[in-house]
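Title: Request for sanity check on WD repeat-containing protein 4 prediction

Description:
We are preparing a figure and want to confirm that the structure record we downloaded matches what your pipeline produces today. Could someone re-run it with the sequence below and paste the raw structure tokens into this thread? We only need the token string, no images.
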Amino acid sequence: MCGEWLVTASGKSLTAVHTREDREPFVLDCSAVEQATKQTATADTSREESGEEGGTDAVLALAASASGSLLAVTDDRKRLLLLRTQPWTLLSCRCVVRRCTALAFSRDEESVWAADKSGDVYSFSTTHTHTHTPGELQLGHLSMLLALVVTADDRYVITADRDEKIRVSLKSAPHNIQAFCLAHTQFVSALFLPPCHPDRLFSGSGDGTLMLWEYSTGRRLQSLELTQIHQEPDTERVCVRRIASSADGRHVAVLCDGLPKLQLFEMRTASEATPTQSLPLPSSPRDTTFDPQDRLWVLLDDQHTPALLFTHTSQRWQQCDALQPDLKRVTEVLRIHSLPFPDAGLSVSQLYKVGFDNTATYRQRKEQRLQQKREPAATYPQSNGAKRPRHTQHTAPTSPGNP
């Protein structure tokens, strides 16, 4: 959600639909945006990606500012687009060094932070929007970054990578690390700061768990196994794709790859999220978000039913009728502009690390060496190719006077 606008990205197309009023939708074709000039000042040639100067114009990540007045988009051609929503206007098109995986605005909305696949985080000014204004390198990981958030007080920037690490850094001095949140056993795919408890952090991972942290100390407060909550223990891989909450932070929705359900939680205390309801979905879910009226939107990979809308009444979430005006308007626009929904970036299966055991080969080779030592060799080759006995007879040396 970008204010009252529901923004979706499908391939190279960006579509924004107003959820409350019958306005003209905004559609942006990234392939029609003029290619930004490649900067050389910020390029790290020692780590520059090889063979990736092309691209498909596909949208890789997007983020909205807290007020909903700005939207940042990054695409497969390593461009960062900054848009204003009132009215919809493209403010700038700048280059990034490498393809980005996550975006986040600072709370003062004076900068947008971009995490890339090499593990670096750059900040770009939203006030100096000239095409040649470079980004500033802020921090880096040794692994691909997958999620990025900035805290509500603008004090910390929190990053998560493929190596199961969550790092909490000071925003004003990102080289100073406040804490690490370490407990996941697979890549960390989602981060979320609940509005009602700004000192807490939700994290989701490819290990199928949802964790709650006190991020300033790195202390884990809660760990929830989503496969057990859904009563599907036989599911091989479950990855958290999205964590979202209502405006008051009371209701938390978690969407996972590999599960055709949407799990709802309620934050009754600052240190616990209680599972409340599981919403079955008719097809594979792509994303989910809450609008300012605390209605829950779910994006589906279904041409006939691209979106669902849920409202909370009588202590339960109920699905709205397809003829509900807001849902009908959004559905009609998405059917035209936002289908199908291809995966522009890395698929989840590519993020899992492939384990292998090389001890079997090592033991086999070691056994072969030991076997060769145990086998007696009758003869050894001479330098001229002839063979001589292994044991030679030694004769006593003669004295100088003897013949």
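Thanks, this matches our download. Confidence is low (pLDDT under 50) at residues 39-52.
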